[in-house]
Design the sequence.
């Protein structure tokens, strides 16, 4: 008898599940709708707190700062209509447009910028990107809790003039203005929503080309709807962008094939199979993977050892066969296609061929010379890396390349979780580590700053006086002269490469499929990736 | 009975307290910080952030603060999803996981009982062999392989069901099947074994002698007596399924809780780790209690009052 009851109960539960879940969603088939794939949830829309690519992409398309980042990381007009820079480069005056509005109808004013910047640098906000404000007057002291946020070098003169005072020249300052951390925020909205601010699409106001809708704060889909209050709405062609989170690449590709997605991310297996497809688009990130040597250890202070380890690596095979996701051989520490001067890419201009070449004979020679200088016959060391599948494949490949070619080299591999790897790097608890750096803004300095002697991120403790001098010169003497500054940075990079202070491996990329009907999508490697303002469907 | 229940509830609370304590201290032993941009922050900046979030306080104090909050129903605020209360994150995502888990259990257990019974009744015939082969396959093919196959052939090629996403009942069919095949195979195996034993016992002979129909014997006597081992299995299985299957949820892009737990550990999102761990544990201890009660209902020989001592 009881069984009968159980069966009935089961049937009732099944039926109620049907009814509970029976509120389906309809696909909009309107023409100017883009269906976009995403690989992770949207964690926050609070631009003071955002730290990840998904948040920054959403913020960039639903909000706007003084500038927008256009094609090839060129700045395009945003809220600023006219900018004047003082001769010493320490004062920027931005005139703001008067027709910019928040989605609650309020005007966007200079006060919104002042409020937003102060909010981000204030320690109590807990922003992880406050360091980007370094260079603006008092920013460092404020983030360190020594001064109050109101002393930040940003002032509103009336409603439509913003004056920024710097402590030191920041040659890439305008570029930073296209990064969401520098966008305005409405104090009214922050106060109104309190702790809920930026945690769901309704707890936020927007001033960009699109408005965020249908985001509950933890769901797997959301929609960017064209913002009819946007000052330049006539140039925004898409009526909506539907985002769907698909954590499985095979699911993403199935949806793409069925026409439910216009773009999807591929894993390396798929990328290899679809290598000939016309819809394959490789998106390079401004992110370089490299070997960092612990140069507090005698063996890695030896340049020949470092050179030999770099020369044995067949990077072409590494990127093509092992990674296979579109990643390319790194030309140096600074990512390719990120920063250009007079039409020349930094990575090409500062290229040192030997630094990333593959020459086993030379490597063997340098290795045995190096060992002799150290007075040892063999050298064992640990190779530290992350524990993702890709990282494991990478270390396995590097280990075999080194052990096969260099007599007396013994490599033990240690794959640990990312946070553990970071922790060990910072504490100097490693021999050689596979690490990566990605640029927040499209200027070579975002990479090169890393390796100055006193930089706290310089975990390998490579030190070079000439390098330090060139970087310093780029920030002081030559900060105001674009060409001279560029040359300083090029020279510095060459010094780093010739000394093999680090060994660049590859520049990371994402393989994607993009329907050919989708046009005008702007992608930038550094900072924010996607800008849909000009995108349309043909 | 009441005394027994009170005692059991007390032990449940004690268990949860121990789980909370052990998890808290183990979690704090993990290297790194909960800040996702940790790589680009200096030691000083990390120090300032720690002060903001109270992570610079002595560990015992952090523990007491957390415990105090938990008693008031405050599970803290997530680090990955900044400003988002952990209780909201869990509440907004447990629904999909629970629905899927329950559906998969109903699908698996009901079908498993049917297949297992058929196999037992037709012991040592080709039907039995077929059922056994099916349940071995069901048990040994990982559910994510099945999920990928279902998605490709049934959803993409035939178009019978949506490929992924979460919206209505049709969206749940394929993940339910993928997730339910495991319990189905397990149930079928248990029921077959149990029922073969039962069918050989004297009281079944008696029932046959009384002239009961074959269906009647299976339904009234055999099945009920073969269910006991199954109950032991179903309890923890249900909790495991309801709290989410990370792989299945990822393949079908379902907004469930499965991945949250793994991701929170990888990112040192302390409040989320605690929240999800406590949810899992509470579910498990509750189900264990429930299982013991159900034992008594199915088999009055198992006396509740005696088993607690």
Sequence:
């Amino acid at each position: 008898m009881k069984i009968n009851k159980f069966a009935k109960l089961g049937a009732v539960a099944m039926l109620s599940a049907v009814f509970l879940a029976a509120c389906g969603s309809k696909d909009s088939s309107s023409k100017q709708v883009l269906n976009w794939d995403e690989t992770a949830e949207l964690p926050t829309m609070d631009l003071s707190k955002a730290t990840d690519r998904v948040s920054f992409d959403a913020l960039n398309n639903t909000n706007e700062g003084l500038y927008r980042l256009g094609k090839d990381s060129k700045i395009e007009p945003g809220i600023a209509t006219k900018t004047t820079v003082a001769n010493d480069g320490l004062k920027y005056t931005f005139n703001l447009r008067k027709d910019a509005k928040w989605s609650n109808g309020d005007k966007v004013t200079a006060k919104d910028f002042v409020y937003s910047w102060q909010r981000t640098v204030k320690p109590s906000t807990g922003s992880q990107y406050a360091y980007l404000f370094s260079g603006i007057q008092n920013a460092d002291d404020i983030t360190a809790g020594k001064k109050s946020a109101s002393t930040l070098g940003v002032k509103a003169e009336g409603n439509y003039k913003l004056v920024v005072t710097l402590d030191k020249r920041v040659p890439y300052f305008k570029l930073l203005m296209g990064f969401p951390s520098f966008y305005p925020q409405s104090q009214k909205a922050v106060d109104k929503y309190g702790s809920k601010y930026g945690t769901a699409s309704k707890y936020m106001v927007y001033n960009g080309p699109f408005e965020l809708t249908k985001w509950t704060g933890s769901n797997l889909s959301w929609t960017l709807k064209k913002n009819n209050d946007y000052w330049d709405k006539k140039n925004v062609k898409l009526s909506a962008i539907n985002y769907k989170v698909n954590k499985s690449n095979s699911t993403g590709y199935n949806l793409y094939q069925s026409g439910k997605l216009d773009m999807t991310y591929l894993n390396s297996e798929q990328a290899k199979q679809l290598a000939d497809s016309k819809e394959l688009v490789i998106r390079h990130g401004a992110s370089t993977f490299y070997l960092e040597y612990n140069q507090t250890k005698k063996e890695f202070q030896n340049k020949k050892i470092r050179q030999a380890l770099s020369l044995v690596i067949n990077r072409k095979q590494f990127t093509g066969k092992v990674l296979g996701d579109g990643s390319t051989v790194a030309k140096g520490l600074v990512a390719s296609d990120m920063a250009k001067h007079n039409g020349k890419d930094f990575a090409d201009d500062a290229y040192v061929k030997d630094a990333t070449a593959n020459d086993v004979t030379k490597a063997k020679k340098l290795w045995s010379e190096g060992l002799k200088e150290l007075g040892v016959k063999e050298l064992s060391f640990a190779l530290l890396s992350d524990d993702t599948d890709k990282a494991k494949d990478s270390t396995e490949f590097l280990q075999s390349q080194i052990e096969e070619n260099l007599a007396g080299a013994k490599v033990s591999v240690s794959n640990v979780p990312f946070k553990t790897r970071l922790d060990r790097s910072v504490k100097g608890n490693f021999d050689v580590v596979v690490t990566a750096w990605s640029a927040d803004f499209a200027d070579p300095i975002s990479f090169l700053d890393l390796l100055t002697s006193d930089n706290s991120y310089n975990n390998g403790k490579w030190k070079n006086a000439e390098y330090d001098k060139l970087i310093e010169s780029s920030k002081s003497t030559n900060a105001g002269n674009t060409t001279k500054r560029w040359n300083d940075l090029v020279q510095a990079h060459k010094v780093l490469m010739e000394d093999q202070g680090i060994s660049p491996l590859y520049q990371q990329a994402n393989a994607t499929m993009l329907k050919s009907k989708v046009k005008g999508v702007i992608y930038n490697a550094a900072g924010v990736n996607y800008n849909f303002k000009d995108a349309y469907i043909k | 009975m009441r005394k027994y229940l009170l005692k059991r509830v007390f032990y449940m609370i004690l268990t949860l307290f121990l789980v909370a304590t052990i998890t808290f201290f183990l979690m704090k032993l993990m290297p790194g910080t909960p800040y996702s941009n940790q790589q680009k922050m200096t030691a000083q900046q990390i120090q300032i952030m720690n002060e903001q979030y109270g992570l610079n306080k002595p560990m015992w104090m952090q523990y007491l603060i957390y415990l105090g909050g938990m008693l008031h129903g405050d599970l803290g605020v997530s680090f990955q999803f900044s400003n988002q209360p952990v209780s909201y994150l869990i509440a907004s995502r447990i629904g999909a996981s629970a629905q899927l888990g329950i559906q998969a259990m109903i699908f698996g257990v009901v079908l498993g009982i049917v297949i297992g019974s058929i196999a037992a009744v037709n012991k040592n015939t080709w039907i039995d062999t077929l059922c056994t082969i099916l349940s071995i396959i069901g048990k040994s093919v990982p559910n994510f392989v099945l999920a990928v196959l279902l998605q490709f052939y049934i959803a993409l090629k035939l178009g019978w069901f949506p490929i992924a996403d979460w919206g209505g009942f049709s969206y749940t069919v394929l993940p339910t099947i993928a997730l339910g095949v495991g319990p189905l195979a397990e149930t079928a195996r248990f029921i077959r074994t149990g029922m073969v034993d039962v069918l050989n016992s004297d009281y079944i002979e008696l029932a046959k002698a009384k002239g009961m129909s074959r269906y009647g014997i299976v339904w009234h006597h055999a099945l009920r007596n073969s269910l006991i081992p199954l109950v032991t299995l179903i309890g923890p299985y249900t909790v495991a399924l309801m709290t989410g299957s990370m792989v299945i949820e990822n393949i079908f892009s379902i907004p469930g809780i499965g991945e949250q737990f793994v991701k929170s550990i990888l990112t040192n999102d302390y409040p989320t780790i605690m929240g999800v761990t406590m949810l899992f544990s509470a579910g498990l201890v509750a189900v264990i209690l429930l299982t013991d009660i159900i034992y008594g209902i199915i088999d009055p020989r198992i006396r509740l009052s005696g088993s607690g001592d």
Observations:
- Chain B has a mean pLDDT of 85.
- Chain B has 13 helices and no strands.
- The CA atoms of residues 264 and 273 of chain B lie 6 Å apart.
